[in-house]
Amino acid sequence: MTFPSKPATRPANPRFSPGPTRKHPGWSLQNLEDAALGRNHRSKAAVAKLKLAIDRTREILRVPADYKIAIVPGSDTGAVEMAMWTMLGKQGVDVFAWENFGKDWVIDAVEQLKLDDLNVHVGDYGELPDFNQAKPDRDVVFTWNGTTSGVRVPNCDWMPEDRDNIVICDATSAAFAQELDWPKLDVVTYSWQKVMGGEAAHGMLIISPRAQKRLETFTPAWPVPKVFRMSSNGKLDEGLFQGSTINTPSLLCVEDYLDALDWAEEIGGLDALHARADSNAKIIYDWIEASDWAEPLCKNDAERSNTGVCLVFKDQSVDGAALQARMLELLAENEAGLDCGAYRTAPPGLRIWTGGTIEADDLKALIQWADWAYATARAEMMEDGAARKAG
């Protein structure tokens, strides 16, 4: 059996992980030499760094002036759960999920908080649930962009302007890559290690005036862990939103995040980040469209993610899991593509990160190697099958 020849060009950087994502072009440890290492995180120098991270976030993300921003423990997960544990329970709740991480919030609502008045709306991988089920008098929890399914919410038109609820949005792989509808969102969360390629363990929590009021006027029926508390005796913890974190942050990670924000500003800010993600994703979707072996997991073009592009195999007669595993081995062995497999509970295929820190030339090289890896893995499987049949 004849096997295909390897492509001539490899990606300069083969990292295509959906999180932690690739560092921005030009990143170096030397960029972090000004970190406030060895300082108490409540010292003037450390708090100034933390406050700078908050202020630069507001500037780059264009967060409204009356929204508050905090750096919180536990990455995006911690930020979402802080909001759920402290704000839900006052009225009915609708949770919308269509991929693995969104379903985590369903588990929290059903099994942990045990919310009495709860509606759960779940979509299959590659599809959105029916957001028309959202009601203006019921709180909402949803994920803007599904990294494990390649599906995003195109907008918030499904939520009316005139509403009396809290909308909690997990935006960890959408922030810095997709346009967020701030007036429709009361809680926005993300983590540094996603779109900006920062280091893990730190979450960002952004809350609207409506959410601030909920925190000051509502007390949940359940105990709230210390790391989730944002208010006391009806008063918001203002220090939290000025850089006085609940627990000890890594000041090296803070410096790394600041470095990523500086890079974002240098290339043109949020508009440039959006444009890079859009153009990167187009490279992959155009390739998939022309492919004889791959198709997008998300069939609706308007709902396709521009950060985590997910593809599946057209040929459903093969062992997709084995085919994926062998392709990933071939890509890794040749340093052509790392960490780009489908999520473990998603249909077999590839998941390629296309956020703003990825270079277009690397994606163009990767897709040639993906074609080679598929053809090689498929030929190996056919040869092995023929040998077993002959034996």
Please tell me about this protein's structure.
There is one protein chain. With 391 residues, the chain is an alpha/beta fold. The chain is built from eight helices and 14 strands. The strands form four sheets. It has a seven-stranded mixed sheet, sandwiched between helices. It has a three-stranded antiparallel sheet with strand order 12-13-14.
Main attributes?
391 residues, alpha/beta, Aspartate Aminotransferase, domain 2, Aspartate Aminotransferase, domain 1, 2 domains, seven-stranded mixed β-sheet, three-stranded antiparallel β-sheet, 14 strands, globular
State the CATH architecture of the largest domain: 3-Layer(aba) Sandwich
Q: What overall form do the CA principal axes indicate? A: globular
N-to-C span: 17 Å
Biggest sheet: strand arrangement: 1-9-8-7-4-2-3
How many H/I helices? 8
* Element string (H = helix, E = strand): HEHEHEEEEEEEHEEHHEEHEH
CATH superfamily of the largest domain: Type I PLP-dependent aspartate aminotransferase-like (Major domain)
Radius of gyration (CA) equals: 22 Å
Describe the protein's topology.
Layout: H1 44-61, E1 68-73, H2 75-87, E2 93-97, H3 100-112, E3 118-122, E4 139-143, E5 145-146, E6 151-152, E7 167-170, E8 187-191, E9 202-207, H4 209-217, E10 231-232, E11 235-236, H5 251-267, H6 269-290, E12 294-296, E13 308-313, H7 320-333, E14 349-353, H8 360-390
Parallel strand pairs: 2-3, 2-4, 4-7, 7-8
Antiparallel strand pairs: 1-9, 5-6, 8-9, 10-11, 12-13, 13-14
Helix pairs in contact: 1-5, 5-6, 6-8, 7-8
